[in-house]
Q: What sequence folds into this?
């Protein structure tokens, strides 16, 4: 039977964070907050066709009839 050896296993895309030049060092505080998902935003979408409203505030989602 064949033997398979894995010597190095990394998540896909991890090489993007290994470079000494990274865009993360060039972001200001406001851009970093939005990148991390901590921005002050309010998104409200209503779907009248299905008689439900979807409201997302700061990443939390609530559904009301």
A:
């Amino acid at each position: 039977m064949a033997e398979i050896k894995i010597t190095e296993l990394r998540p896909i895309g991890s090489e993007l964070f290994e470079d000494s030049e990274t865009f993360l060092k060039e972001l200001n505080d406001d851009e970093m907050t939005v990148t991390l998902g901590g921005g002050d935003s309010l998104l409200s979408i209503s779907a009248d066709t299905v008689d439900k409203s979807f409201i997302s505030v700061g990443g939390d989602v609530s559904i009301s009839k």
Q: What stands out?
A: DSSP finds one helix and three strands in the chain. The two ends are 59 Å apart (CA to CA).
